[in-house]
Amino acid sequence: MEKQEFPSFNDIRFAAVRIKSFIHNTPILTSSAINELAGCELFFKCENFQKVGAFKARGAANSVMKLSDEQKKKGVATHSSGNHAAALARAASVAGIPSYIVMPSNAPEIKKKAVKGYGGKIIECKPTLKARETNLEKVVNETGATFIPPYDYMDVIEGQATCALEFLEAQDNLEVLMAPVGGGGLLGGTALLSHYWDPEIEVYGAEPKGADDAYQSFKAGRLIPQTNPNTIADGLLTSLGELNFEIIQKYVKDILLASDDEIVSAMRLIYERMKIIIEPSCAVPLAALLANKSKFQGKKVGIILSGGNVDLEKLPF
Fold first, then answer.
1. What CATH number does domain 57-147 carry, 3.40.50.1100, 1.10.260.40, 3.90.650.10, 2.60.120.830?
2. How is the chain split into domains, by residue range?
3. Over the stretch 32-50, which tens digit does the pLDDT of each residue have?
4. CA-CA to 51 of 20 to 30 Å: which in 91, 114, 167, 242?
5. How many Å apart are CA 163 and CA 166, to the nearest integer?
C-alpha cells in the first residue's frame, strides 16, 4: 500500500478533536524511585485510566464517529474477547447505535459483563478464529453492520495515534517513546505520530518473549504469524497486523523483548511505587527497558501504560 494512505498529521489532529468528548486526556505520572532503578527519566502516559480501562477507547470512538449516517443506523460489529469488544460497545452506546460483538465462549466473564453493560449484543461462538470470523460474517450479512477490526484498520490506527499526540503536546522534550505491541494498532499509531512530530524521537515496541511474532517479523523484514503464544501478557497474544507492520518497519527503531518473570517484576514495581493498577501487557515496555538499560541511559523516555483491566483475584504476585 502507498505511504500516502496512512493517516496524515492533520488526520490525527482532527481525530483528537473528533473523539475529545468521548475519551479522557489521561495523566502523565513519574516515579523518582523507578527513574533511579532505570538510569533514565521516565514519563508514564496512563491509559489504564482511560474509558473502558484501555487505549482501545480511542480507536473505537474514532471509527464509530467517522461512519456515515446510513452506516450508523445499521450499527457496528466485531469479534473480540478483550478490550476492543468493550471499547466498541461503549463507543456505539455513546453514539446511540447498535453493536454486535462476537465473543468466544471462553472469554472472561468480566469482559462479557463490560460489553453487556455498554449495551452490546453478544453472539457467543466456539473459541477458534474460524468460528469467530464465520459468526461475524453472518452477523454482518444479517444486520448490515459495519465491521470495525480491533487493530489492522486505518480509522483505529488513527484513533490510537491520538495517545502519542496528547503525550507529546504535554511532554514535548521526550527523546524516546515506548509502547507494547500485539496487533500493532497502538505502536503503529505511536510511531506514525512521532515521525510527524519529530523524526528524531526513537520509538521502540515491547513484546513478551512468549509471543514474539512482531519481533521476528521486524528482524526478518516480512510478516511472520503468531503461533502458539504463551505469556502472562494476555493482551498481546494476537498476530501483528499488515498495515501496522508496514508503519512499524518504517518508523520503529527496534522491538525489545521481556520474559514473563521480567514482566511480573515490572508490573509489581509499578503497583508498589506508583500505586496504580495495570494489566500484565501494560508492564511489558518497562520490563523491556529494564532488561536493556544501557540503551536508555540518561534519556527522557515516554512509556504508554496501555491498560488496567486485570482480574484482581488472579494477580501474579
1. 3.40.50.1100
2. 3-54+153-314, 57-147
3. 999 999 999 999 999 999 9
4. 242
5. 5
